[in-house]
Amino acid sequence: MAKGDKVTLANSGWCKRCGICVHVCPTDVLKLGQDRVEIDDIDKCIGCENCELSCPDFVLKVVKVNE
């Protein structure tokens, strides 16, 4: 985890709405939308990678963001 890392939807079409990522996010950045997971408040993301590591479908990716 590095400063400036944020979650992104790398493969949003693969999301099955299992909700694992929502439950492991310590800052409530993610929420379940109607069709897939959604990023609710990217500014709260601390880049911990919990969501990326727990997603069984490789939907989420934590990437470096140039601020």
Percent strand equals: 15-25%
The SSE order reads: EHEEHE
Largest sheet: 2 strands, antiparallel
- Show unreliable segments: none
Protein structure class: alpha+beta
CATH class: Alpha Beta
Strand order of the largest sheet: 1-4
Estimated radius of gyration: 11 Å
Instruction: Give average pLDDT, whole number.
Output: 92
Q: What is the number of helices?
A: 2
Could you name the CATH topology? Alpha-Beta Plaits
Total strands: the figure is 4
- The general outline is globular
How many individual domains?
1
Do you know the CATH architecture?
Answer: 2-Layer Sandwich
End-to-end distance: 16 Å
* Helical coverage, percent range: 10-25%
Short description:
15% of the residues lie in helices and 24% in strands. With 67 residues, it is of the alpha+beta class.
